[in-house]
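#structure-requests
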Amino acid sequence: MPELYGKICKVEFYKVGKLYTFLAGDIDLEVGDRVVAQSAFGLDIGIVRSEPEAKKLGDEEINPVLRKATETDFEKNEENKIEAQKAFEKCKELIKKLNLSMRLLEVRYMLDRSRLLFYFGADSRVDFRELVKELARNFKTRIELRQIGIRDEVKKVGNIGLCGQIACCCRFQREFESITLKHAKKQQLLINPAKISGRCGRLLCCLSYEQNMYEEELTDIPDEGTIIEFEGKPCKIVTVNIFYKELTILADDGQMIKLSFDQFREKKINIKSDDEEYSEDVIYKNDDLFEYKDD
C-alpha cells in the first residue's frame, strides 16, 4: 500500500490555546489566516499558527480545514459574541438564583450556533443539572458546561506574574507542564510557598525553564546529607552550592573540606549505601522545616 502524504497545519481556536492539527488540502494558507474548521465542540473560526507542510499521514484521522473565513463568517462570529455576552449575564443570574458555588469565566457560541459553551471554575464539584435545564429552556440549543482547573482559570481571565510581566500562560505557554517541589529544591530556592507559587496558587511554571541546566550542572553531584567515603574516611556532604559550583563535606573527625564540582568528579568518590552505619554525633538527619505539595 503506497504511503499517503498531506499538507498539515496547526490551528488555534483560543488565544494561546492548544494547537490542533488539520489538513490544509488545496487551500492556500499562511500563518495568521483565519479559517473555518470543525473543532472538538463544533464549527468554529481559528487562526493558522504554522506553515502548511507535507507530511506522511498515519492511521489517525485528521479533519480538513473547510475554508478560509469569509466576511459572512466574521459577521456571524461578531453576532455570536454579542449573544454569548447576553448568555453570560443570564447565566450569572441563574447561578445566583440557584445558589451555586461556581465562578463563570466565559461563554462561547459555536459558529453555527449548534452549541453554547459555558466555562466555569469552582473549588469543588458542582451539581449544575438544574442550571443546564434553565439554560436550555432559555437558549433553545445544546448547552455544555465545562469546569476547568485553577491554572486554566488564570489563563482565561489573565493576570500579572510575580516578575511584573503578564503571566506566561496568557502570553505564550499553550500547555502546562508538571511542576513539583523537586524543581525548586534542585535550583536551591527557599521553599517558601509565597515566593515560588504563581497567581493560581500552584508552583511557578517558570521553574521548568532552567531545570535542564541545573540537572546538567549537578550531574554526579550527590544531594546534601549523602554519606561518602573521602580519603579513607566516612564523610557527610553538608552543603552543595550550585552557584559557586562547590560542596562542603564533614569528616567523622570533625574536619571540614571544600571541593569544587570538578574536583569531586575527578576523585570518583565512593558514595555509601543507606544501610552502612556511622557515628550518630557526626552523621545526622537534615529534616525539612515543612512540606509544600503541588497537586
